[in-house]
Amino acid sequence: MLIPQTRNVGLPMMNLLRFKGLPILQQLHIEEQLLRTSSENWCIINDGTSDPTIVMGVSGKPAELLEVESVLRDQVPVIRRFTGGGTVIVDCGTIFVTFICSKEAVPDLQPYPRPIMSWSSLLYGKVFQGIGDFHLRENDYVFGNHKFGGNAQSITKSRWIHHTSFLWDFEVRNMTYLKLPKRAPEYRSARGHLDFICCMKDYMTRSTFINKTVEATGTQFSLRSYPLEAIETGSDTEFYPSTRFLTDEELEAAAVAGR
After folding, report:
1. Residues of 46-68 as b/e, b for ≥16 C-beta within 10 angstroms?
2. Is there a domain that residue 93 lies in?
3. Locate the BPL/LPL catalytic domain: which residues (predicted)?
4. In 10 A of CB 150, how many CB atoms?
């Protein structure tokens, strides 16, 4: 059953999926399926994920981005997702927000990476209005010059996805699994992970952030809550996701290559 949430006449419809602790691989499979097989607009909010997991972009190379031997020793799962962007380690302290839209959904928005990024920063500007020094810096959401939100995108012939991992909190030791990337934003200025990122918990509560995100989205779309079961039973299109875990063999080969 679809539950009406906001009815704003004249605004495009958007389905709202809200989860708490959904495993990140399952979330990414849902997102990829909705991008490839649905024609509707979607907002997905997942408040945390279960076990610490490394998520790499579609073209990421483990030997360049990960401390592979530590990852293998501690059995940290590594996912290669279907979108571009950088590498993150996510856990229960990460909040995920995703927008999947048809190219006509946002009036006058050109379906290219930079315009979509700019559109998203305006939406989140409403969420963080009066809180910290929020802005979009290169491809990151920052307070001042400290990153708390990383973005990734994929654009198809008729649709696009923009998804974000927000650092509400993080475990310091998890950052040791990530190398400093060779390609980094200029404003990072070669800072280490702990000098570069900050926690959103220092600025607002989880529930406030999620509620404000829904409110801000509701200014541009007419939202309706949508149950996961409707997705799982409602698609007649056979779908095989490309997002997957990397095997130990792949990581071991990367460890050898990185020596």
Report:
1. bbbbeebbbbbbeebebeebbbb
2. yes
3. 39-225
4. 21
What burial class does residue 78 get, using C-beta atoms within 10 Å of its C-beta: 0-12 exposed, 13-18 middle, 19+ buried?
A: buried
Q: Residue 86 pLDDT > 80, yes or no?
A: yes
The CATH number of the domain where 235 resides is what? Answer: 3.30.930.10
Write down the residue that tokens 């779309």 correspond to. 221
String of b and e for 122-131 (b: at least 16 CB within 10 Å)? ebbeebbeee
In the predicted model, is pLDDT for residue 203 greater than 60? yes
Tally of structural domains, the chain = 1
3-state secondary structure string across 217-257:
HCCCCEEEECCHHHHHHHCCCCCCCCCEECCHHHHHHHHHH
Contact between 69 and 107 (Cβ < 8 Å): no
DSSP-derived pairing of the beta strands 42-47 and 3-4: unpaired
User: Which residue, among 15, 39, 60, has the nearest Cα to 157 in the 3D structure?
Assistant: 39
Cα 234 from Cα 150, distance rounded (Å): 31
The pLDDT tens digits for 87-102 are 999 999 999 999 999 9
- Calculate Rg over the CA atoms of the chain: 18
Q: Which domain holds residue 223?
A: 11-254
Tell me the whole-structure pTM to 2 decimals: 0.93
